[in-house]
Amino acid sequence: MLELARLEDLPADYRAALGTQNLVPLWPNLRGVLPPGQPRPKTLPTHWSYESLKPLLLAAGELTPIEKAERRVLVLANPGHGLENMQASAAMYLGMQLLLPGEWAPAHRHTPNAVRMIVEGTGAYTTVDGERCAMERGDLILTPTGLWHEHAHDGAEPVVWLDVLDLPLVYYLEASYHEDGPRQAVRPGAGERRYARGGLLPAPLFERGTRAYPMLRYPWREARAALEQLAAAEPGLDAVQIEYVNPENGAHVQNILGFYALMLRPGQTLSLPRRSPAAVFHLIEGSATVSVDAQQFKLAPADTCCAPGFSRVTLANASADQPAFIFIADEGPLHEKLGLIETRN
Ligand code: 1HN
Q1: What is the band of 2 on the pLDDT scale with cuts at 50, 70, 90?
Q2: Residue-range domains of the chain with CATH
Q3: Ligand 1: which of 98, 143, 163, 164 to mutate, most ligand atoms within 8 Å of CB?
């Protein structure tokens, strides 16, 4: 490949003259922004152990009252992006949030989209757009852009969940901001009952719903049953995987990030296609090894890891008799909308 001239090849006075007029020569920087063949992600394959971070999260519960934190979260930051930038990948933010009995995380809304994957504890609920969403292990709860949300806890033990947001992208676009609001009037959540049966949609007087976010809580009980039934119905199927979708139209549940659950059969090894979006893997149940290029992460329940775009990812379940259940978040919907989605062998 043609070697391009470096910045140092230019006379110092010329470089200084460019700077005074806010000008930059492209050629010394061209290969950096357009590397050959495939991107050079800053995102590093990274593993966060729940067992290791949990004591630090519980300590935060003693060190910082909820009133002083608003959201008590330890961010799972990718060192490749610089920890202070609070990014798991180019477009994904991850955090582990703790809510203690009796605490309340006040109502706000913001432009980034969030989802929560509940890790442990019972008795907490989040109110999204006025709908009460119980938080139980493995549930996925959406907090799409612009919807009011707050968290409350009537139970007796700490509740922890994984937050996944598209914050890095929305922040990069200079589109990130929030508003505070009063405590919401709460009505029981209805989405999960309204869309309780696959292929059967409410259509009162022949009209289908058109709400952008018709279903806010996806109970783990249902997702797990769907995976087990899929595995039983198709014994030869390698990728026992479901996507969390908008039940009215089958679209991705949110505009920017995609969300999936995958079951590894006992003893199964599954190689994923190499894809342009970065992905996050979070173990809900069982045990699994996630290989990302040359690195191997052994995931225990509630562990999380990430893989940059175009990496080779292999998922393995070493258990001879127990399935493993993995929650996956990726930047796929974003890449699709931008026309950047690629899959390679
Ligand atoms: C947020 O609103 C929550 O509502 C959690 O629980 C984490 C991280 C960045 C920006 C907003 C929440 C967040 C967040």
Answers
A1: confident
A2: 46-344 (2.60.120.10)
A3: 163
For the cut 90, the answer to whether the pLDDT of residue 345 exceeds it is: no
- Residue 343 has φ and ψ, to the nearest 5°, of -125, 135
Q: Which protein residue's CA is at the shortest distance from atom 10 of ligand 1?
A: 167
- The Cα–Cα gap between 165 and 222 comes to 23
pLDDT band at residue 250, thresholds of 50, 70 and 90?
very high
CA dist., res. 52 & res. 253, Å (int) = 31
Question: How many angstroms does the Cα of residue 195 sit away from the middle of ligand 1?
Answer: 27
Q: Give yes or no for a contact between 327 and 333, defined as CB atoms under 8 angstroms apart.
A: no
Cα(325) to ligand 1 centroid in Å equals: 25
d(CA 276, CA 344): 8
Return the SS3 of 163: strand
Nearest alpha carbon to residue 337 among 217, 166, 87: 166
Whether 41 and 308 have beta carbons less than 8 Å apart is answered as: yes
Coil vs helix vs strand at 188: strand
Amino acid (1-letter code) at residue 21: Q
CA 167/CA 114 separation, integer angstroms: 8
The Cα 314–Cα 271 span in angstroms is: 4
